[in-house]
Amino acid sequence: MKNIKQLLTVLFVGLALNSSAQQEAHFTQYFDNTLFVNPAYAGSRGMLNATAIHREQWVGIDGRPRSTTFSLHSPLSYESIGVGITAVNDVIGPINQTMIYGDFSYTLKFKNSNGKLAFGVKGGINIINSRTSELTTTQSDDPSLLSAARNQILPNFGAGIYYHTPKWFVGVSTPKILQGSYDKTNSAREQRHYFLIGGGVFDIAEKWKIRPTTQLKVTEGAPMSIDLSAAFIYREKLWLGIMNRWGDSFGAFIQYQVTPQFKAGFAYDQTITKLAGYNNGSYEAMLSYDFVFKKKGLRSPRYF
Question: Cα separation of 282 and 270, whole Å?
């Protein structure tokens, strides 16, 4: 078992550094983490919102991925402009990445429609730390593993478009446009990812609604990642959901609207790949809070 864990740790390093692999973290509750991938989402909730998600992936395997995200965003007094900040810490084996980005959006409103079209940009830095030189490898002179990074800073920027109505939404984005190199050999670099996310909410009974969502992630040299989920909402309070990451995993989540402003959630998913026999699944915890400063209070319940 120890040898298997060491092998998987090296595999994680390869996934984190290889230019042909997906590098952006997966989240089961991706629908509550939209600002992470699309800056046009900034300010779309109509109030100051703070959301945090922590994910423990493939529990039971040494060097497993661990990801923590925090986002804070709000419209300005001139409500067509939204601003925000996203911070992400992503650990895979000996690789530790900390990303800090500022987000800006501008929203167009239409006279004969309740839909809004937002354009967004984000910019920030990715701080890389690695201990790859401490790994035991079969190839002692592998340059990708011997060149450890110490507080290496890679600047980057991204862009996105987000259209939403009270009943449905769709957005496209690429959060990292530059493909900076992690090392001097240029054998490892940030990979550009493209995201498409969409969904809606529908009444299915007097006290029940359903909110289906999907997220597509595309990057060069790796299979397309497709996430599908459906949340059943009871009396605007209890959210019971199922999800499937096509060809990779399936899971479930539960969220509860503790107050009109505060929502908490928990998710579990299990891979269906060959790694299934070596881990106890992946877990996520989510907290989200809307700050209300205006006397008019909260708007209608928010589904995305």
Answer: 6
Structural contact between residues 18 and 262, judged by C-beta atoms closer than 8 angstroms: no
Most confident of the following: 57-66, 98-107, 132-141: 98-107
More confident residue, 230 or 4: 230
Q: Are 86 and 103 in contact (CB under 8 A)?
A: yes
Q: Which residues of 190-203 are buried (b: 16+ CB within 10 A; e: fewer)?
A: bbbbebbbbbbbee
Q: Any idea which residue has 């650990």 for tokens?
A: 91
Asked if residue 13 lies in contact with residue 62, where contact means CB atoms within 8 angstroms, the answer is no
Residue 131: per-residue pLDDT: 72
In the chain the domains, ranked by start, together with CATH numbers, are 2-291 (2.40.160.40)
Full-model pTM: 0.87
Per-residue pLDDT tens for 107-123? Answer: 999 988 899 999 999 99
* CA 116 distance to own-chain centroid: 23
Closest CA to 194 of 219, 214, 227: 219
pLDDT at 8: 44
pLDDT (0 to 100) of residue 15: 43
DSSP 166: S
CA nearest neighbour of 280 among 12, 5, 60: 60
In Å, what is the CA distance from 112 to each residue of 66, 115, 116, 118, 165? Answer: 45, 9, 11, 17, 12
CA distance 137 to 20: 21
Cα separation, 247 vs 274, whole angstroms:
11
Q: What is the pLDDT of residues 10-47, one digit of tens each?
A: 444 444 443 334 567 889 999 999 999 999 999 999 99
Of residues 203, 267, 262, the one with CA closest to residue 235: 203
